[in-house]
Amino acid sequence: MNDAPITWNPSPSKPKLKLPTGATDTHVHVFGPTDRFPYPETSKFKPGDAPKERLFALHEMLGIDRCVIVQSGCHGYDNSAVADALAARPGRYLGIALAPHDISGAEIKRLDGQGFRGVRFNYMSHLAPGAGPDELRALAPRLADAGWQLLVHMEAGLIAEMAPVLAQLPCPVVIDHMGRIDASLGFDQAPFNALLRLGQHDHIWLKVSGSERSSVQEPPYADATPFAAKLVQTFPDRTIWGTDWPHPNFRAAPPDDGVLVDLLSDICTDDAALKRVLVDNPQRLYNFGNSV
């Protein structure tokens, strides 16, 4: 039994916004259950369980049909908890693994068979460090050959530094959580302008999740949603969205996922934009299998 505090809101509200058929949450995690999938001793954080059953119930309530589960650092390189969740929703739920930079082609093929479609590297001070530039250059061709993508979770101050490497990679690159920009610094801040420049490359995708993390305000995070809206307007065919459930390492009480869904009314200007961000773009990037 895991007695650690949960990181998710146990009573999320039902969103007012009706989502289109095929709506996709491209960024969630699962934690445990730790009696089946224990955390390694080396884990930097050991949150309360956030099992697949809770995730599935949340998505049913929110009106989400498809999903990408991103392996969390609390489970390290053992992707078993995610694989277990993918097996319960084959084709509709896909995964992003954590793996060493020298992951073999055989291991990529094995994980691909379980429903994984990429790897993630973290460049955040509270998480294990990601691969260096030369390691990314060596890995990216293997990802491209497999039809995989690279997720990059980095502090805003690193965007300009990492952009020259990311811009040259041969595989799709997804920038998580809007590059973790600080909404209080406004549109003219250097990190956001660096993100806009990086997004000009056709293989760069922007995930307009994390308004609650970029914000310095209380819900509904009105200072942060204009940044997400700007990215959707600028890159209409390469923006995707996610809830970031179960909201690990959040600065305050767990966000209300229904509120996060309703933010899409401000992020997407019309139904066509909403469908692109939630349905069409994720389908092109991930090639989900089963129809909904």
Automatic annotation (TrEMBL):
Record Pfam families: Amidohydro_2
Keyword Transport part of the UniProt annotation: no
SUPFAM superfamilies the UniProt entry points to: Metallo-dependent hydrolases
Residue ranges of domain Amidohydrolase-related in the record: 25-288
Region of interest (Disordered), residue spans: 1-21
GO molecular function: 2-pyrone-4,6-dicarboxylate lactonase activity
UniProt EC number: 3.1.1.57
Keywords for this protein: Hydrolase
Cited Gene3D superfamilies: Metal-dependent hydrolases
Domain of life assignment: Bacteria
Name by which UniProt lists this protein: 2-pyrone-4,6-dicarbaxylate hydrolase
